[in-house]
Amino acid sequence: MRNSQMFMGEKVKIIFDSLDGLASKVPAKDFLKGFTDLVGKLKDSDVTFIVTIDLSKLSKDLVGSLNEMADCVVDLSKDESDPNGRRLKVQRLNQKSAKIDSEMFEIDSSKGIVFV
After folding, report:
1. I need a labelling partner for 49 at 20 to 30 A (CA). Which of 3, 19, 94, 101 fits?
2. What are the sequence ranges of the domains in the chain?
């Protein structure tokens, strides 16, 4: 993991950025079991849990299992031919496939993500 954070307030929020390094080094079956246990405990505790992962570095079986487990899946992609060409696509929302068009966005150093 490159970065992990935990925020306490009215509701606990946990962010793991990025799990692909760990997920690619542990056998998929072991990773999935441990991660499923963790997610179950966090859902029971009403915690917001955000994970980033580079799905291209994982097996298709593991990616499928992680997608099925997620309440929401957002795909961020970059067009290599266009330095500003980035897209955000909601693939899953409330544990159901989303039929939402992708949105173009840019990253501005002073504003963060800016939808164009």
Report:
1. 101
2. 1-70, 72-116
